[in-house]
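Need a sequence for this fold. Nothing fancy.
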């Protein structure tokens, strides 16, 4: 674990509404790429390719955020793969 915070450089980001089947299809394709060791990320605006090492750290996180004014709850399910070079 990092003892200090490093500056972040966002290399790729996309966010859009999709139905569950589309999300599952994207995750299955990503899983196949991870198995092969190279992940290709692509949106209409950008493209990025990254090599995943053999033994990275894998984190799954489920969060619930509550709006203090409305009480409305939002959930976030995140899958994260980390490694150092």
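Here you go.
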């Amino acid at each position: 674990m990092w003892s200090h915070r490093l500056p972040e450089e966002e290399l790729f980001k996309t966010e859009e509404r999709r139905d569950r089947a589309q999300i599952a299809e994207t995750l299955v394709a990503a899983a196949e790429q991870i198995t092969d060791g190279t992940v290709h990320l692509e949106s209409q605006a950008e493209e990025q390719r990254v090599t995943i090492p053999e033994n990275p750290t894998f984190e799954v996180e489920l969060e619930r955020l509550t709006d203090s004014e409305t009480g409305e709850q939002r959930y976030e399910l995140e899958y994260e793969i980390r490694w150092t070079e």
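For context: The radius of gyration is 16 Å.
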